[in-house]
């Protein structure tokens, strides 16, 4: 105790944040850490220096937060996620610790523009889309609402690919965000753990009817931790994002190298490093599937070993683990953690299986993000058993318990027993990771009210009947610091000037802005800020793509992962139909519109990549047709990431949230757009339902079938061909696409996409087209009445405070984590 007190007494005083002190420290970091004289320093040198100065202040708060957690014995939350789409961190950190303006002045005094160097910061390629961005928002909000937390994931060297276009086709290139290091992170060599794969399990008899199991892996790698501070608003708390890098046990086989086998000598090193090279390696091949399972187990095992080591530093044994620790599984990617924790507790730490299983179940909770069966991961039993033989034994043991309980205690019939089994028996035998996460957790939450209810009725219907108290809802949210304060400073300051500072700390104070929705002066200022944001996006599109778009036109934006259920295809087909109408009826007063798309398609997802190509082919024709007179333009902006979203979201007039009802779990892009003053056109899917309830049905444009109607049509039989034949606009648009009007170099390029709509239309593109086209003309009518338009969009901003991730995290902490 004396040493601890002495250490605290010796802690340095908080650093000053006045601009003179910051300028002095910038020069010191430039000289002593980067080795540059200011006269020859390049912009990237100043960027690193600025980050290091900010990082020092963040680190002070970080240490304080860690000491406070240890001294109070507060319960820790561990958030396991394969993705953390954190984006650029410098502006975020400086804003949250309150030095952004002072740093700007300090840099200006040294002849450096903060905005210029901020653009040089790499966008961390640690995620794909909504799942990863949600995890990043949650990390910031956990620190903001003072929940002690660690985020655990993988330190991808390349992460998700960098997207380029070659003749309109997506081309995947490595994202080199770590090429010059990452000044935010700290390597923790002392936090390294062995991770095994393959091999065999040895059974040792240790007494009557008792056995001990020893897994002897055939392969081993080392997981080494890299920590990045996650700063909460006003630096109330700084938590830790801990990412794992893989290293070989033996980096080089020297005998092989000296014998001339220079490639073979590095095979262990290459095999280890491949684990953390790429996010979501294509899994269309057995090798790709194996790499993905290796990745998931690698980061789960390292994280759990780290959690257990930290627990034993404060507590004598693991009986207190559920009271001191909450582990949240973000989707099924970390679901193997359930089996791994049981293995560590039984095989390594000697606990009885029953006790270990009870501890695991009370410690884990699971967030489900999808109702798509193919997205609920499953692994071929032979692959799982070969790679993780001990875990396969544990899965079978758990499954036996669950199925016996279902049979004996609940009397479930054969079909329901098959549905809840951890092993899929129809066709290829597979380990169901969603079922494993469900039975191994005390709480299973959906991410919107609709999604949660559909979980109970569809993918987990029988498990819900078996465990009716486990499923609950936690509607997603976004951090207003990143998605208003930083990406739209003009609007943020206008709101602050109008309603005061309360919303800065509590987004649920935003409804006070309602009083200004019909105020003409406020509307004009609101419109001017939107126009400024649109100018910025127009300049980006012009410089990056050579396409001129008019900021006076309606900016109609759909940015998200390219997937058939998100229905970018519906949007493109409507663009083709609108193109036909503009050419056919030039006498009508058409609303100028720019349809902007961005998003990445999984490398092995053929139809998604074809949709990108169609968007670019349609854009090429429409944008170059003088008959359109500039009234319609289509643009696909490549390489969608957080930094691009921060420019596109504030510039949107219309937000496209048009997924097939019942298929989008929540969405968070819908929240970001509305918060920044965009009108939403969407289906009653995911969080759109709750958004409608909060913003008012008069301030959102809803169209199309409901989730119940979609399910009914699918069950009773859907005849898309008849629907298409009855819709002149849809029929003409599909014929134009299928016949090669937009692909004269390959007239059959899109025939398969169109055939899919004619023959089964699983995603209800034909079924919803007429309603969508009608809704778009309703949007046109609202746009022409600017007073009405801005009244509605201002109310969207005013009523989005409930969708703050701070609210979501408080609900997790109260209802699930008890933290």
From TrEMBL:
Record-listed E.C. numbers: 2.4.1.1
Location(s), subcellular: Cytoplasm
Modified residues (N6-(pyridoxal phosphate)lysine): 672
Keyword Membrane found: no
Predominant location category: cytoplasm
Named cofactor requirement(s): pyridoxal 5'-phosphate
InterPro entries: Glycg_phsphrylas (IPR011833), Glyco_trans_35 (IPR000811), Pyridoxal_P_attach_site (IPR035090)
Keyword annotations from UniProtKB, A to Z: Allosteric enzyme, Carbohydrate metabolism, Cytoplasm, Glycosyltransferase, Pyridoxal phosphate, Transferase
Molecular functions per Gene Ontology: glycogen phosphorylase activity; pyridoxal phosphate binding
Cellular component GO terms held in the UniProt record: cytoplasm
Reaction(s) catalysed by this chain's protein: [(1->4)-alpha-D-glucosyl](n) + phosphate = [(1->4)-alpha-D-glucosyl](n-1) + alpha-D-glucose 1-phosphate
Any single biological process term in GO: glycogen catabolic process
Function as written in the Swiss-Prot or TrEMBL entry: Phosphorylase is an important allosteric enzyme in carbohydrate metabolism. Enzymes from different sources differ in their regulatory mechanisms and in their natural substrates. However, all known phosphorylases share catalytic and structural properties. Allosteric enzyme that catalyzes the rate-limiting step in glycogen catabolism, the phosphorolytic cleavage of glycogen to produce glucose-1-phosphate, and plays a central role in maintaining cellular and organismal glucose homeostasis.
NCBIfam families: P_ylase (TIGR02093)
Family: Belongs to the glycogen phosphorylase family.
Record-given protein name: Alpha-1,4 glucan phosphorylase
Organism the protein comes from: Shinella zoogloeoides (Crabtreella saccharophila)
